[in-house]
Structure formats: C-alpha cells, structure tokens
Amino acid sequence: HWHGFFQKTTAWADGPAFVTQCPIISGDSFLYDFNVPDQAGTFWYHSH
C-alpha cells in the first residue's frame, strides 16, 4: 500500500492480495515500475 503520491493510473497496484492484486508467493517477486511526475516528497510502501 503506497503513501505520499497520487495514483491516477496505478490504483490497481495499491491494495491487499486477492482484492486488487494476486499475492506474491514465497520465493517470487514483483516489480513496481511507474512514474511519479510533478510530485516531490517522501513516498513509502507497506504491505497489507
């Protein structure tokens, strides 16, 4: 779950497993790759 920036086109990537995304299984990974244009600040993520 992201904090600190707008998610106009990436809302699908902000939520708990089985709600907006499939869970990431043990030993696997998922890369979040998106732009944060025209925003400055501290952006942080935590799982749900």
Structure write-up:
- By secondary structure, the protein is mostly loops.
- It is built from no helices and 2 strands.
- It has strands at 2-3, 44-45.
- A two-stranded antiparallel ribbon has the order 1-2.
- The radius of gyration is 12 Å and the shape is elongated.
- It starts with a strand and ends with a strand.
- The mean pLDDT is 82.
- It comes from Panus sp. HKUCC 4062.
- Belongs to the multicopper oxidase family.
- It is found in: Secreted.
- The arrangement of helices and strands along the chain is EE
Assembly state: single chain
Secondary structure tally: strands: 2
Which structural class is indicated by helix and strand composition? little secondary structure
| Spatial gap, N to C terminus | 7 Å
EC number: 1.10.3.2
Keywords: Copper, Glycoprotein, Metal-binding, Oxidoreductase, Secreted
GO molecular function, one term: copper ion binding
Pfam families: Cu-oxidase_3
Brief digest:
With 48 residues, the chain is mostly loops. The chain is 0% helix and 8% strand.
